[in-house]
Each structure stands twice: as structure tokens, then as C-alpha cells.
Amino acid sequence: MEKYFKLIRLDKPTGIFLLFWPCAWGLVIANSTINNEILFYKFLILFFLGSVLMRSAGCVYNDIIDQKIDQKVKRTSARPIATGSVSIPQAWFVIFLLIFLSLIILFQFNSNSIIFGLSSGILVAIYPFMKRITYWPQLFLGITFNWGVILAWLAFEGEFSFAPIALYISAILWTLGYDSIYGMQDIKDDLKIGIKSTSIKFEKKIKFFLLFCYLTSISFLLVSLKLLNTNIYTYVLAILSSGILFFQILVYEKDTPKKNFKLFALNNYYGLSIFLTLMVTINND
Q: 5, 9, 20, 142: least CB-packed within 10 angstroms?
């Protein structure tokens, strides 16, 4: 069972929360217009379970597609599919099981949410190939990984709005930044193999690139808060939370893989802090 535990990355839960927090943001801002606490917490639990399942399924799928690449990268060479301890047919069975469970959760929502949620499958399927053809796989990850912002809004509201779209763009740019830090761990191996990433593209100007990503992300977050007519405390707490992002830029050092992973993991606290900010201020307007 341990190999399957590692296969679906339950030993590394940071990714689960980075997928979940944008969903939680979307739920909070949507509930601010409806104010249905019972439904909110029900959906919060469902989205968390969905984040666990879909992140796990995505990891297994990526490992299938990247089997040969993972074998050549020091950080990923011990993954179950790369080592052969889990076969490709076994991995596909795990994926189908996880997707089946995810669909049970998705079908708890309204029809627009279901259609929008199913459409994310196209992005998930394409994502592993992006690093083979473009230096912007982190941007594509952001588009895919933060789909839950809009999905969460639709689960409550049933139709699109500018506020969650601005929040979605903010989350995309946030992901573009933190995943570029994450990619710095593998930059030497990736260069040898020929894998592309924003980490490689902006290696010599990574701090300026991160500054652009995080400043733009925060700007779109503030636009979303403006569209929601939030109070001044929301803006203050959101800006204070952004200190977690700028701290990453300040202390980043090249060729320190362990430190880079710790900086990447800090983003979990940023996601949590924005969630708590929205919960405390918006829900108490």
C-alpha cells in the first residue's frame, strides 16, 4: 500500500491545499451574496475531497506521461511508476477509480458547475505535454489548477461574474510565481533533458519575474475585492498576507533546492491567509 500512497502523493499534501485554497476563495465570495452557511460548509467539504481526489489523479496521470523523464531527474527518479514498482495498467486503474469518485462529488452541484467541471478534464489531459513544447507550462498549470475558483462560484451562483474571474486571474499569476520557484529544484536536470519551464526562461531574472507575478496577482485580487464592495479591512489584511509572497522573493537563493521547496510550500500559508481574510471580513460585512 505504501507505493500507492506515494503514487497519489498523500505523503506530500502541499499540492492538495494549493489546489483547494482557490476553490475555498471562490466559495467564500459566492456565499457573501447568498449567505447560506449550511450549504457553504457542505460545499467546502466537497471541494476539499474533490481537491484530494483530482490532485491525486493528476499526479498519477503526469507520472504515466512523464515516466521516462522522471527516471532522468534526481528528485523524481524514485517515484513508483518511474521505478516500475507500480505498472502502467495499475496506475490507470487508480486514475479511473479517483475520477469516478470525483464525478460523484461533481454531480452534487448544479448543471453549469458540472459542465464547467468536466471541461477541466481537457486541460488536465494536455498539461503534462506543455513542458515539451513551451517555456510556459507553469502558466498552463495556473489556468488548470485554479479552475476551482470559477467552479466554486458557479456552484452557488450558477452564472459567471467579473469578481470570480478577476480572482481566477489572480490565482493563475500566483501559481505562475510559486511553480516557477518549485521548478528551480530541477533546472539542471531539465536543461540536460530538454524540458522547458519559466524557471529556465527567467533563470537569470527570476526575482524580477516573481515580483511581476506576485504584484500582478495581488492587483487582480484587489480588483476582485473592489467588485465585491468589500470593506477596508479586507484590503488591509489581503495586502498584509502578500508579505508571504514578497518574503519568498527576498530570501530566494539560486542552487538551493531544499530551500526552494520550503519557499514553495510557504504558499500554502498565503492561500490560507487569503481564505481567512475573506471569511472574517466578507462574511461579517
A: 5
Instruction: Please count the other Cβ atoms lying within 10 Å of the Cβ belonging to residue 72.
Output: 15
Instruction: Give first-to-last CA distance, the chain, whole Å.
Output: 48
Cell digits of residue 10: 498523500
- What does the buried/exposed string (b/e) look like for 245-274 if buried means 16 or more CB atoms within 10 Å of the residue's CB? beebbeebeeeeeebbbebbbbbbebbbbb
* 221 contacts: CB under 8 Å, gap ≥ 6: 166, 167, 170, 238, 274
Q: What is the DSSP string of 120-177?
A: HHHHHHHHHHHHHH-S-HHHHHHHHHTHHHHHHHHHHHSS--HHHHHHHHHHHHHHHH
Span 122-149, pLDDT tens digits: 999 999 999 999 999 999 999 999 999 9
Q: What is this structure's pTM? A: 0.95
Check if the beta carbon of residue 223 is closer than 8 Å to that of residue 166. yes
Side-chain-side CA neighbours of residue 159 (13 Å)? 0
Report helix, strand and coil shares of the chain as percent, to nearest 5. Answer: 80, 0, 20
Rounded distance between C-alpha atoms, residue 32 and residue 29, angstroms: 5
- Return d(Cα 128, Cα 137) in angstroms, integer: 8
- Cα–Cα distance for residue pair 27/104, rounded to 1 Å: 19
Judge contact between 141 and 127, C-beta under 8 A.
yes
Up-side HSE of residue 172: CA atoms within 13 Å toward CB? 15
Confidence of residue 285 (pLDDT cuts 50, 70, 90): low
Q: What is the DSSP letter of 79?
A: S
